[in-house]
Specification:
The protein has helices spanning about 10-20, 25-30, 35-50, 55-60, 70-80, 85-110. It is an all-alpha fold. The longest helix has 28 residues, at about 85-110.
């Protein structure tokens, strides 16, 4: 990760993906298998690996999963998806997350 590329907190990523996908945050923490929720979950895993230092096990724990294997499978599936809607979701979620993370950082800097 380059020095100019800032990490994005996991909670901000989750909220940004859910907002971009039009899904409830609570749904990604359940076993819901609706296509849109699964897509949001996959996006969270992929973006968490790109924009945090979290391991698959850590991501699994944060998503309420018992093991990392399902999260790893989501990551593989996410890498195999290249349709326009998927790429658009990733782009929108990443931009939302960056803007929100920057706003949080700015607010913290102003307080100190």
């Amino acid at each position: 990760m380059s020095a100019t590329r800032r990490r994005i907190p996991f909670g901000i990523l989750v909220q940004a993906v859910c907002d971009a996908a039009g899904e409830d945050v609570s749904d990604v923490y359940t076993g819901c298998r609706h296509e849109a929720v699964v897509a949001a979950r996959r996006a969270i895993v992929l973006l968490a690996r790109r924009h945090t230092t979290m391991s698959f096990q850590e991501i699994a724990r944060r998503l309420g999963r018992r093991t990392h294997s399902g999260v790893y499978q989501m990551h593989l599936a996410a890498h195999g998806t290249h349709n326009e809607a998927w790429l658009s979701l990733l782009e929108r979620a990443t931009e939302l997350a960056r803007v929100r993370a920057d706003a949080v950082r700015l607010s913290q800097e102003e307080r100190s």
